[in-house]
Amino acid sequence: MLQPETPAKCCSYCGGRDHNYEDCPKRKADGERQKEGASLATPCNSAQ
Ligand SMILES: [Zn+2]
Question: Residue 33: what pLDDT?
Fold first, then answer.
């Protein structure tokens, strides 16, 4: 019944926590421009 405030999602692309890497809108946008190759990954575990 109770929904966790922070779902177990962690985007390793832009560092978003509201979606997964596979569901990253930014990745899709970048994917249209250029193929996978950008290494601008921002792990969520990075210190703030
Ligand atoms: Zn993302």
Answer: 76
